[in-house]
Amino acid sequence: MMREKFPHINGLLVSTITLPEGPADGLIKEGDCLISINGQYISTFITVDDIFDSNVGNEVTILIQREGKNITVKCTVQDLHSITPNRYLTVCGTKFNDLSYQLARIYAIPVKGVFVSCASGSFALSEDYTFWIIDAIDNIDTPDLDSFIETLKQIPDKKYTPVKYHHLSDLDTPLFHTMLIDRHWLKSFTIATRNDKSGLWDFKTIQDKPVEPEPLTPKTAKYDDFPSEKEQFKQLSRSFVLCECFTPIWLDSHPAGCRKVHGVVLNAEKGYVLVSRYCVTHDLADINLIFAQSIYVPAKVIFLHPTKGYAIVKYDPSLVLAPVQTPKFSKEYLKRGEKVTFVGYTSEFRPIVDETKVSDVVVFNAPSDNTPRYRATNVEAIDLDSTNATNCGSGILVDNDANVRGFWMYFEDEEDTDYTIGIDVNDIMWELEFLEKGTKPNVKIIDAVFNTLTIMSARVNGVPEEWLEIVEDKCVDKVQLLTVANISINLDNKPASALKHGDILLSANDVVITRFRDIDSVIRHLAPTEEYINMKVVRDKKILDLRVKLAEAKYMLTDKIVCWAGCTLQAPHHSVRQVIKNLPSRVYCLSIDQGSPSEMYSLGVTNFITRVNGVPTQTLDDFLEAVRDIKDNSYCKLRIVSMPEKIPFAQTLKVNYHYFPTTELLKNDVSEWVFKKILATDIEQL
After folding, report:
1. Which of 43, 284, 458, 564 is the most exposed place for a label (fewest CB within 10 A)?
2. Cis peptide before 85 (omega within 30 of 0)
3. How many C-alpha atoms does 214 have within 13 Å on its Cβ side?
């Protein structure tokens, strides 16, 4: 019959998926062959669409054939718009919407649930940021977007909150996560609704301010001892604390996210903790310290070392009613071959105690790449003859009396390769002396990267024999000299030091230099106002006397970023200035938002913007002044220089302030990060 009615076709329409809880659930099954709707025989999708579009909300009669039998069912035609999202929520840095019919059809699941459409911030639930459905938050079910919104409105800022969720492809495996609510960095709590008349999505703020954070109260905790037969090692667990660092946005080329490592208590009475900069990459972050896997307290960054890969954070000791202990610190430097005991935690936070020895002490410089970000340099690195230590991201090196001889920490290069090395305790305690006096250390450094040089290489490169004899007499552990591997530049586009690549160091302020620790010692004994040291070097086989300017660590931290057209801009941070010899400008592209004009017009990460509509933009202030006259939905012409190739090119970009407004994030007078939104009147937008 169907061949006679439709002689040009060679098949009929067959049901492939029936969505659970939909209008056809229980009526139409997979494999059913469609014969007619409301008495009209069907051969194409066009006919089906015409019938359904004219019967939205009405009941239709469908004739199907199943296993050779004719079956008639009555089914209500659902409005496709009712199961296609026309709004989305932005909160805690993440976008949500009701699950769409289109996605539900792919996975053959009910069209319901809160879908995580663009995860970041608090809701970065795992390394896979996509295709999650939120089932409950704070132990309250959230079957749809409205219930999700009402629940979130009641949760205080900075609260650890349980969330239950599952993946679209696996309804039977519930997943759980404890997240930190962030509505102070990621302030937006808005609903965007599609406006079919204007063609835009209209934004409405749901809640101007979050519920205030819950007051912190002192709590008790019990420590588990380290698994060791020696009593002096068991209680070292009281000197460790787990550090969680949440970074809300990109800064200094570090992406947003959360990292965890164990830190070591430097002073339990004052609340100082040493932690790797692998975890605390910068000071635009939320830091929580977890004691005895039981209680958490917030902490803030006190000090970030510009080159050696560690940070010092501070917490309020009155909030921790637990036997936190300051370990005993040795005043003797570790040497090659010396026996130590490693006490620490694996990457899965499993405690380890392992007797080992120091295999070497070398100058460590993390490798650089074309996407510069913080990397440790000029570190007197301790290597251990221990596989267990290599597999651990944090720990301490102690002697038989449980005196701390060194810290074991994660380091990272620009290609996300992790390293674990040790730092001698005496290379760090100088900064702690300042903190214990109530002042912040203003570390000064020679802004250059150094490598070691053998005596043979030094002789070939012109170091006089009398100097080689002096060096050999001084060296007690390893005979070597230092040579300059790289010189940074400052923001004024000038070399940060009078040293040059290839210089071989002989002395600093008349102190013979055989290792980087010697330079540190000279700088630490300078008067606070001293800005230079006198160095004797060999350059081109000649001995030169140089006056070398020191760089202050406090000026190496970023204090301002600008978001424009979906691009995050900042001044070139220290890692950029370590690898580039000439700055095209101080407007450096840090990151680009998905779907933004900057992505659409290929602005490019790690590039420099040198001009806007012909106006030079040497600084971020110059850039903001140049973009003020650019009206909404209009084009501008950018001059850009790529990195590292330094290839200049021009790019045209169309701004869109409705979705990507211009904002600043900068430090105030007390070094706190604050937002500043550039108003419409400032940039002459609609």
Report:
1. 43
2. no
3. 13
